[in-house]
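Dear Dr. V.,

Thank you for agreeing to look over these. As mentioned in my earlier message, I'm a first-year student in the group and I'm still getting used to reading structure tokens, so any feedback on how I've presented them would be very welcome. I ran two proteins. I've put each sequence directly above its structure. The first is here:
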Amino acid sequence: MKKLILLVFLLAAAISAQDIPRERCKFPERMTARTQKMLKAQYPGDASYDVTYYKLDVTVTHTPSFIGGAVTINAKALFSPTNEIFFDLQNNLVVDSVLINDIFVPFTHSDNKITISGLGFSQDEVFSAVIYYHGTPGSSGLGSYAVEYHNNGTSPIVWTLSEPYGASDWFPCKDTPADKADSSDVWITADEYYTVVSNGILEEIIDNGDQTKTTKWKSRYPIAQYLISFAMTNYQLYTNYFHYTETDSMPVMNYSYPERWDALRKAQLDEAISMLEVYSDLYGLYPFINEKYGHAEFGWGGAMEHQTASTMGAFYDLIVAHEMSHQWFGDKITCADWHNIWLNEGFATYSEALYLEARDGRTAYLNQINSEIGQSNQWWTAKGAVGTIYVQNIEDVGEIFNGARSYSKGGVVLHMLRGVLGDEKFFNVIKTYASYPGLEYDVAVTEDFQGVAEEVSGIDLDYFFQEWIYGENYPVYSLDYSFFESAANETTVKIKVEQATNTNPAFFTMPLQFKITNSDIDSVFVFFNDSASQEFEVVIPGGIPTVKFDPDSWIMKDVNSLTDVGDPDLLDDYRLEQNFPNPFNPSTMIYYSVPESGKVTIRLYDITGAMVAVLLDEVKERGTYHLNLDVNSVGRNISSGVYFYSLEAGGKMISKKMTLMK
């Protein structure tokens, strides 16, 4: 079958850079400077300084659970004067002393904050704080700090997972993702039994001569406080290499529990090399190429995208792909606040589908997207999402990491954006966003991504982001098709689109795709739907066609009427379809077809056979039609119950049963 793709946009709503003004001034609040985003973020972190460096030099023991040592925080004052600053640290940890620029200073530690007063810093003045502390770390949110065992309770392990608010459970910091440090060091002193995994490059391991060793990891890339991590146990190391040029390679360091290392685990980890190739092609070269990528097994049920060292509770393909893609979206570009967590999790969820598309083809991609959409409103899929993707209540960790909203629906939004833009523009947008000046290795909000998408595509996308990120639910369409043949071997196809009333927005604005098949030609028409009720019309060569709505599944939606109509077989005889919806109140659609011009009568009867109303009595040309029955408009008050409706035409009578439920 030949394929003919026709893109038809109505003049009033054509999407192009020429037809729609750019109106960049609509986003005066759009921020590309980290400092501005940091000041705007709604967090307890101190907004008076900008962190530039973290160094954790700590001793860790498993039994008893203990952490203690020195944390160095280098920063720059943002205001003049800056007289008082605070760092976040939970009260259950004990602060021994604080130095500012090598001078011991008085401090208070209450309300989970270390407060230092009387500083007198001027704007842009740099300073260094060293905080000595010790104690038993707490564990909040998704875990933050865990002391456990594996291998049937025989092998101790300590691991961290600080997202979203858990960093201050185990080290002093500025606990907001809006303020990324330019670099970090993590030095862990522990029993010689432990292999310690952390961010960046392993610089050295020092034997302390007392059955302990100090492991030093260094990250030279910007890093958010919640991505700083360590995990330590008796790991078995398996190193593979990502060859990103003919002569250059990067280590992929995989730390597995020894008792779980086998051929399957090796195969799972080897596939990570293919993933690095796919994502580097789609998004730009792996963002921490001068350090490493790696995995460290831990005792949590999921996984966490710690920068350059994802901690993994499982190793199946999509969880490995998800955490790896976070290295671009979440680690390289980090959401500036948890309101915008979809910029992390939605992108990583969508990346799962993109990897399947690269590995297994388009069908695998669509199957994954449809799984994320959900076909029966399951609460854990996109159709089960309640509320806006933009997280309203960031005090609730469950709200931040809502699987239906932040993950599934966030990923589906990117799929729909791909449908709006087309592949070439969409992938150009994503790759540009991943390396956009002021955003790469920094932080972003939704308006940043929208701005890049509009700049690269030349298309005003405000309607799209407003309804899908800041709006709720998804469109519910009712469709009506009519076909009219002419003497010139042409057919006029009329399409009426109606949307059920939504909350926010009242209706969804989207380009709608229809595949109209006639003879051996598939024609794809795209109409821009920007009202709750709208009609479109197109003339095609040949006779009565078949019509398929959204054939490539670009929209998350429900359809409350026929989506495939106009089959020429339907016009071989008089046909009366079952009304939809049924049962109904107060209105329903009745579809019917007539094979030739003539008078058509449709009547409504009650269950006793008494006629209630004549719904239609007029001449119709050959074609497929619909009739909208509203019981409030039939001229009399009718009650709930079973009714019959009949079509009389061409000497034939066809009847169907319907149920009214008031």
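The second protein is here, in the same arrangement:
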Amino acid sequence: MAASNEIRRLDTKWKSGTGWPLRLDAIEIQGVRGWTGQRIAFPFPITAIVGENGVGKSTVLQCAAAVYRAPGSAKDRFASDFFPDTAWEKLTGVELRATLREGQAQSTTTIRKPGERWRGNPKRRARAVEYVDLSRVQPVPARVGYQRLANPGHTEVGASAFAAERLSRLSAILGRTYERAKMALTDADKKREVPVLAYHGDSYSGFHQGAGETTVTELLQTDFPKHSLVLIDEVESSLHPRAQRRLIRDLATVARQLELQVVLTTHSPYVLEEVPPEARVCIIQTPTGDREVVYGVSPEFAMTKMDEVQHSECDLYVEDPAARTMLSEILIEANADLVQRCQIVPFGAASVGRSLGEMVKGDRFPRPSRVFLDGDQAPATGCAILPGEDAPERVVFGALKELGWQGLAQRTGRDYARVADACERAMSTPDHHEWATQAASPLFLTTENLWQPMCAEWASQCLDKGDAESVAQVVEDALAGLSLQATPPTQPTPRVPPTSPSPTPASSSLPASTPTKSQQLF
């Protein structure tokens, strides 16, 4: 999905090297709720942290809130506020180490609790921190002290009305044109504010609003100080997908204007799609209870880590949807039963795959897993390489062009001349990731409805049999519970595709005498 205009503008300013004089570069957490020194970096003005419940997403926010002291007379927060000793747990051996940046100068601050007392608080750097926790999602009537406000005998004694710009933001996020919005006080309690909205001539308070309306209204009432650190827990709570996207875009605009640093937690693929890959941080808990921090994951990968709708036996990780289809057709060609036993998950950038490969090598996934990089990637620890020594699109398009496209025309049910013309025109565009989409459009097909038969035709007619068996062996070993080191090398078996009816002679796209990257599995 293409980045929104708001994210692109934010990215442009961020990469210009101007602004953001105050930054939290990273945090290392030791001795709190199972953390054992893992480092979490914040490489973009908006960082989205994703993971299952209990992996420590909120802990990251709380640690970030604790490593700064409040400027001036603002209320300070301490690590002891977030991590108190109780009747059930007493923390010792805790260390929160933060890497901070002020202008061009980088420094480190450490908050620790070696025994009974927290140490290091006076040495913290000053910065405004806005911590928006889950208390905001509690319905107004259920909040402590609010029920007594629901009495028609009380009167409004004060209100903070939204200015036109803030009202416009509220309307844009929720997709409704509000006439007025305010945070109001009654004579029953001059400290507890109630959101009040006007829509289509009707005025209604937080006692009668939808949860999403209350959540966004209360979030927008906050004036974030310039250069502040904004921490938001489960940013998507109570919001439908369009509103989630609009909220992230609104935050991107405010972050650019005020040079804010925003760190948020989420379980939403829509939120992850809105931020660039470098802004996605996935926390994974291993079977031993350790945590792995992976950067740049795809929304599909993150959702797979949190969902078990597919009850497969093995997870296979590939770079993108194009590689997913390619791997699926390779397995169908070699051993179709494997496809039913595995789910294939795109993970995003190759750097993510290399990180996952390290996890495979260390047996840190909760169930059998293997990682496949595209053929144009160098061998990496714990990773297999897809056949072809190039990106999937280049491999498949190139091989089918040599066959003259004849089989593809039959598989898609389209006229041969139109298929050949559409595919060859697509190959003239510089971005190979767009080839399938470019070719599908004039054939009145969706991208996947063209790419799948292309991969099927390639696997059937062009794929070296030894390469297919090598890939299948990797998966079979994972299903059998064999360790990565036990994966034996497979020697290629030459395969000559059948004669094509097209005018172009059929030929193997890879010489049988040359070992391919798919044989250099791990």
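From my reading of the second output: The longest strand covers residues 189-199. The CA atoms of residues 22 and 220 lie 23 Å apart. Does that match how you would interpret it?

Kind regards,
E.
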